[in-house]
Specification:
52% helix, globular, four-stranded mixed beta sheet, 210 residues, alpha+beta
């Protein structure tokens, strides 16, 4: 059975291929080539990927990124499509789903929404529910740097507190859009924000995400 992570992986590869290596993304300073290299390094170079979280490993991460961005773009796309090596933890279905479903969804939208002709993507209910479930668990982590109180709300009324504080801003949208908002893509997320004007302004430029 196909998983959300596998589906989003293949969609991401298709979008990167169609956009081309020099197309922009929502990741500041990165074009599609850089984003593709990031995905491959994260899966295939665990010794360097730790630099995403640990500053002591940043030099190793930078070296790995330089190595992979220099590879032919078509090779990077194929490495994304085929997935991690067989002995990688990411090759295990449950770990792949837990670690990559949100990751690949966000990066697919990084490619889609950086193009001038993008349109909102309608997600199926099962995937939307899966994103919401993950967002509920990660809300406090992704919202920890919010300068104001932050509440996430689905159109069906379900809510999650991402950051306690006052004043409070309530962000309403579908789970996919809330996910993008909480991962620092506030300007590209189709959501509505309710709260004091100054608080809303601070939130829209805050450094949210992991």
């Amino acid at each position: 059975m196909s998983t959300h992570a596998k589906r989003e992986r293949l969609l991401l590869a298709d979008l990167l291929e169609a956009a081309g290596p020099e197309a922009p993304t929502l990741c500041t300073g990165w074009r599609c080539r850089d984003l593709a290299a990031h995905v491959v390094v994260r899966e295939r170079r665990p010794d360097a990927a730790g630099g995403l979280l640990l500053s002591v490993l940043k030099g190793r991460l930078d070296a790995a990124m330089a190595e992979y961005t220099a590879k032919p773009y078509e090779e990077l796309i194929q490495l994304i499509r085929t997935g991690p090596p067989r002995m990688s933890l990411y090759a295990l279905k449950q770990i792949d789903e837990a670690a990559n479903a949100v990751e690949f969804y966000v990066h697919a939208e990084d490619v889609r929404r950086a193009q001038p002709d993008w349109s909102p993507r309608e997600l199926d209910r099962v995937f939307s529910d899966a994103l919401w479930s993950r967002l509920e668990k990660m809300a406090r982590l992704t919202g920890r740097r919010s300068p104001v109180g932050l509440v996430l709300r689905r159109p069906n009324g379900q809510t999650a507190v991402a950051h306690k504080g006052a004043p409070v801003v309530t962000v309403t949208g579908e789970p996919g859009e809330l996910t993008l908002f909480c991962f620092g893509r506030q300007a590209a997320a189709a959501v509505t924000l309710d709260g004091e004007k100054e608080a809303v302004a601070k939130l829209t430029v805050a450094e949210l995400g992991l």
